Amino acid sequence: MFLKRWTENLPARLFNRWYMFDNTSILITGGTGSFGRKFTQTLLDRFSPRRIIIYSRDELKQYEMSQTFNHPCMRYFLGDVRDKERLRQAFRGVDFVVHAAALKQVPAAEYNPMECIKTNIHGAENVISAALESNVQKVMALSTDKAANPTNLYGATKLASDKLFVAANNMAGGHKVRFSVVRYGNVVGSRGSVVPYFKKLLDEGAKELPVTHPEMTRFWITLQQGVDFTLRNFLRMYGGEIFVPKIPSMRILDLVKSLDSKAKTSIVGIRPGEKLHEVMCPKDSFHHTYEYEDHYVIAPTIKFAGGNNDFTHNALGETAVEVPEGFEYDSGTNPHFLSVEELKVLNDQVA
């Protein structure tokens, strides 16, 4: 099933907590990316933030974004997450952080491993350090299904990043900051993803589309669903959780049909480090995975001194049950697959 809207079933007694984003400062690392732009738009549409800080290293993308997002609360900071001192400057007076900066292309990471490590692992360390020193309230790090049972370097670096953010809750000491992680699958229409790539080929007159493997499946989520899920988890979080949404899967050949029913396919082979199916909740983690109505929580394996170690309920009052023994959330065995018609609807949302 699709994710529920962020307002659905929100307990009346907790509704006012949603306004936690009003009159606050929110910083987004990698803020000029697809997620950052949608997250920024959603903040401006729904809340009255004091500041929204876009932290990224590309001056052209910042300039282009500033032409659209020019609200008085907007701030643009040039900087790299590899630069700890610059992060410290940017984090001053910040209440909430979304860490979206990463090197994400699987083949590029395989060919440039040290660059991926510097950004995805050392960058995560720097974000944690800056958040602790600046007394930020909450940090939400964006992860990926490729971090579960990783077979490629990108996934391995994001697994390491996830572990860093979870363990950071034990480093907080007297600081109020809490860290959690959001993990989800492929984002429909995000920059560099398959739908805009296939659309570009079709617009250029291509009669066949390159498919890595005919049985490939992926978890499928829209940008807005990812943003809504992330926002709501700021309300749910105690610190240390990995939040995983219940989302549908898609079959790659169904995606091709949804774009052009007459298009043929050419099988080009799985790319370096790529999986046939993706996993978001690994089987080996079933003993600390909990199922909520519209999401799962993978609880930390370590105990937090003086913190909350009960993840059968959350700060919104929602309750969970333990998943069955051997449970695994896999895109190939997901009970909900998108139909060709459903994929067409989602494709129409991609420019």
Strand arrangement within the widest β-sheet reads: 3-2-1-4-5-6-10-15-14-16
**Structurally, how many domains make up the residues?**
1
Topology-level CATH name: Rossmann fold
CATH architecture: 3-Layer(aba) Sandwich
Question: What is the helix content?
Answer: 25-40%
Task: Count every beta strand, where a strand is a DSSP E run of 2 or more residues.
Answer: 17
CATH superfamily: NAD(P)-binding Rossmann-like Domain
Text of the CATH class: Alpha Beta
Q: Which segments are poorly predicted (pLDDT under 50) over 5 or more consecutive residues? A: 1-16
Give me the Rg, rounded.
20 Å
Q: What string gives the helices and strands in order?
A: EHEHEHEHHEHEEHEEHEEHEEEEEEH
3D structure, described in words:
The chain is built from ten helices and 17 strands. It is of the alpha/beta class and 351 residues long. Helix 3 (84-90) packs parallel to helix 5 and helix 5 (113-134) packs parallel to helix 6.
In short:
By secondary structure, this protein is α/β, with parallel strands linked by helices.
Q: Topology of this structure?
A:
Layout: E1 25-29, H1 34-46, E2 51-56, H2 59-68, E3 74-78, H3 84-90, E4 96-99, H4 106-111, H5 113-134, E5 138-142, H6 153-167, E6 178-182, E7 186-187, H7 194-203, E8 208-211, E9 217-221, H8 223-236, E10 242-245, E11 249-251, H9 252-259, E12 264-267, E13 279-281, E14 289-291, E15 295-298, E16 321-322, E17 329-330, H10 340-347
Parallel strand pairs: 1-2, 1-4, 2-3, 4-5, 5-6, 6-10, 7-9, 8-12
Antiparallel strand pairs: 9-11, 10-15, 13-17, 14-15, 14-16
Helix pairs in contact: 1-8, 3-5, 5-6, 9-10
